[in-house]
Batch of 3 targets.
Target 1
Amino acid sequence: MMIDCGEGTQLAMRRMRLKFVRLNHIFISHLHGDHVLGLPGLLSTMALQGKTGRVTIHTFPEGIEILQNVVNFFCREPGYEIVFEPVSPEGGLVYEDNALTVTAFPLYHRVPCVGYIFREKEKLRHLDGDMVKYLDIPVSKLHGIKMGEDYTTPDGVVIPNSRITHDADPSVSYAYCSDTQYDERVAKAVAGVDTVFHEATYIDADRVKARGRGHSTASEAATVALKAGARQLIIGHYSKSYVSEDQHLAEASAIFPNTLLANEGLMVDLL
């Protein structure tokens, strides 16, 4: 899965040795060039590398019309299926499978924009292998037990689930807050998420500029994470007017200590 697709996407993927053919979903936050103009080239390269199956691009109805024309022109015979799925600017469920949901929520930029929350569903409990073997539990009963059911032996004895299983691994969640000015509705939308990425284009000295351009400062990003009760914050999307991001990190960490600077190639453990 990928969120947004700027012009440097292919280069970044090559540097990180990510496999192009494994990409199946691309979630677009908004229709500004630095978030979508890498898409035609990426889809063409995936065709050259033998991508099969399907790639689903999630974007606004307006974006579907625009991007469909571009893709049809530059990637006419991809060898795989390219599907566009509409996303409402008001948000809502965008994707779901047996392990994960992806939900969009409104952001507050100069054009319609959404963020995305990725939530793992509750995981199955772990079986105690020794108990399963001791009780000679049929394979047909194991899935129900992992779901939390008790086990009833052939002679009618009920074995509590807690004696047969161990706690499931924790489910994790991640919120991506793309371009947006500070708004408490964002904090409410991502409340309870473990890890929040939030744009931090400017530092406090440029707060007026941030507001006028529909962006946030690092301290405002930290305030969102604090109000949301997040475990960790990642800030990024820095203005190129700064020589370094040291001040961004200092201002965000003063409000939310567990803050990381997003940089190309960064890998974060969500647990």
Target 2
Amino acid sequence: MKVAAVQMRSKGTIESNCADFEQFVREAAAAGAEYIQTPEMTGVLQRSRRNLFSQIKSQDEDPLVRLASTLSAELGIWLHVGSHAIRLGEEKAANRAFFFGPDGTLIATYDKIHMFDVDLENGESWRESNVYQPGEKTKLVRAGEAHVGLSICYDIRFPDIYRQQALAGAEILTAPSSFTRQTGYAHWHILMRSRAIENGAFMVSAAQGGDHEDGRQTFGHSLIIDPWGKVLAEKPDEEPGIIFAELDLNSVAQARRKIPSLANSRDFVLEDATLETGSINEAAE
């Protein structure tokens, strides 16, 4: 399977991002990509709550969702919109991924489970939970012969999602993202390669990159990684563009035979020895 990860620098209006989205998807399909992934917040990147809610719509009314369905059918591709903000009501939105089949059918959606609520050392402060309603279900979908696990950005720091997907048969894991520049420099490559290695699976992660209209700074460096942790393709900067790789699904089984951590996994109980009679220090005495 030839796959593509689209790196974007999404703007503050859905209309402008729809134009960029269509251009990149058509370019990737023309280059032979069968599966195309775009980053978190493909349709609108807007830090202001007021400005965001002036833009976003319900899923049934959203222009990016309609465009993605049309493009996937016209181009005959598996199209994975990494995420897009969808209005749930007056107070909350969903950070939602969309996965379309080659006939334009919406196969699955996934709402980001883990909210990025943090104060960074450089003064950046994020409270995704103030805007977004967290999801409750991880998702596994099928694209041709491949089983694809869905996640979004901050989910990458919670390994249980990917282990469950791998145990359920996922050969391709995904984490389309909008990593901040600060956290990207520190952890992006390590986290992405770790999830691939520990599950013996491909990892495909399209990213946002650069200085955005709302003042946000994102890391870029979209990645496609093989089940052994080798980087097959990387966008080596923050500029918009596309990376490609050919994925041989047989290499998933090969990696899992060499390091059978999924098969060797066992249930266990955490026993808190500090609650037992006598402390460790007392025992040593």
Target 3
Amino acid sequence: MKLYAISDLHLANKVNRLALETLPTHPDDWLILGGDVGESEIHLHFALTVLTRRFKRLLWVPGNHDLWTIPIKRNDLRGEAKYNKMVSICRHYGVLTPEDPYVLWPGEEKNYLLAPLFALYDYSFCPENIKSENAVQWAVESGVICTDEELLLPEPYHSIPAWCKERCRYTEKRLKNVSPDVSLVLINHYPLVQDLIRFHMFPRFSIWCGTRRTADWHTRFNVSTVVYGHLHQRASNVRDGVRFEEVSLGYPRDWNHDLGIGYYLRQILPVPPDKKNE
């Protein structure tokens, strides 16, 4: 029995949808979906229809693409309403979300508690001399702008940072109630620490990649592993003795189609032998 993870399936792309349908079956294993499944309810339904038939259990967290409002019309779901709709779709398929109780991993290893999170970003992943309220302008000056500025609507909150603040408050409260005897696996679309972000071509895109509010979560709480995506930069890192696993697939240009999506599933539990001594 294994726990795998993958994020950023981006099923708006036909190539990725076709590849997902060829994924081999893992009848005894669990799968983490780390956000950016797609950009519509149709994409989420498609993914969960395919993957619930191939895995014993799924866990989902939202990415920014999952929460986009496309097209923007008067009656379209926005912000928290869009998020709640995606949560309800997941529950229809029996998929765990950030709104559900954290679940113990039933494997034979020590006690691991799997914690899907929804912590947004607040533009604070910028240099110390840049105020977060000026960060978007700072990024635009270098020719960088995220589509979120048009399509990720924070209603009923007055801004994405305000929504992020509330999500972090809610999440911290839940994490504080977890017994210190249980080892946590934190699952979030965005990286929890800023130094994991390495955009050589567009470094100022970092402001759309997380919040400093989460920077010490992996040390404040009894965390063994952090699973995240968003960056389209598959990587394994260790910070303060904690594994950080970036598990993105990405757009069709970001992965080798000859290998298939199955190749990109990252094993989280049991801890692979080559990760135990890191």
